[in-house]
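pipeline stage [seq->struct] | target=SnoaL-like domain-containing protein | organism=Colletotrichum higginsianum | residues=185
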Amino acid sequence: MLAFPNANEGFPKFSAATSHQVTAEERVTAIDFVNRHNFLFEEFDTKKLLTTQLPEMTLYHMYGHFKGAEAVKDFIESKYPPLIPGVTRHATNHIVDRDNETGGVVVRYHMTLVRQAWPEEAGKVTTKDAFEATGLPGIWIYSAVVDRLKMTDDGWKLYSRINGSTVVNKSLNPGASEASKKNVD
């Protein structure tokens, strides 16, 4: 019996053994790239964020399938703004294997989006004082993710991102803070 029988649906298969086809430098720089890419969402500089992908990049997301730089750009600009304020991204348990189709690497990891503040209060989180909030920080979204990366003259670039099995804590959705305030009043 599988713990999560559908959790890896659509993902490339991976081996239980560490791939010796991937060099230590490739492994380290691929993980660093994934972490940097995910950290860029906190800046939400769309132009800078889009420099991390190839023109033919494909994105498989709970909101749909997007192919090509323009489609991904439109998706990020139209759907992501509510997913940004007060949220940090944390990628863990990276597994790096050779992508036999492209010659690049496949990085599989767990992604958690942590709500540290409600969108309307995100500006209050500063380096000057500790921000206090009841019930926060909290894990808002969990996703299993696979990034397929290709090496370019500028370093790794995203060829494909698959956001797989996803669980959302509805009580941390944007607007949930207003609903909870109304229930208290």
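stage status: PASS
auto-comment: The first strand starts at residue 53 and ends at 61. The radius of gyration is 18 Å.
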